[in-house]
Amino acid sequence: MIEVKPLENFYSAEEYHQKYLDKNPGGYCHISNMKFDKARLAVDESTLYRSKLKNELRKTLSDLQFEVTQNNATESPFYNEYYDKFELGIYVDITTGEPLFVSSDKFEAGCGWPSFSKPISNELLTELPDYTHGRERVEVRSKHGDTHLGHVFEDGPKELGGLRYCINSASLRFIPKESMEAEGYGHLLHLVM
Known about the structure:
The chain has helices at residues 20-23, 33-41, 45-48, 54-60, 63-71, 177-180; strands at residues 89-93, 99-102, 106-107, 115-116, 125-130, 137-142, 148-153, 164-167, 172-176. With 193 residues, the protein is of the alpha+beta class. The protein is elongated, with a radius of gyration of 22 Å.
């Protein structure tokens, strides 16, 4: 735990350090202006993809999306939006917009739900033991939205790593490659092949 209290023993920097980069447009020591510009434009994703209150989600999600994402329901196989969609793009958490999966990691598993060999990053997901329905499984939830996505199994294609992220379409929103830049996901275009 970090203690938060008023700053003590603060001393102003010498005058020649004030507005240093204005006076030294070439950069600070060995750090170029390009790195400062990059840092200025950086986005803290933990603040970008915030979870919403259930009453707020109730207003924006369909009944099925709400039941899947908030109450761990499962949509019907083969009768869902993305199980047979193989266009180029990314899949994001329907509740937060957090990017989760890339179309190039999607494969036909024959199970009736969208299946992916891996997430964009393992840091985007939380995996939890699930003992419902009389069997042991691993539930997959989005990290920032705490959205129920589906389950991960170890029966995926060996050549793709052996995992199958079996995900409910109702927990996802698909962003086509041609819309990614306009919707703020341009930094992920290099992943879409």
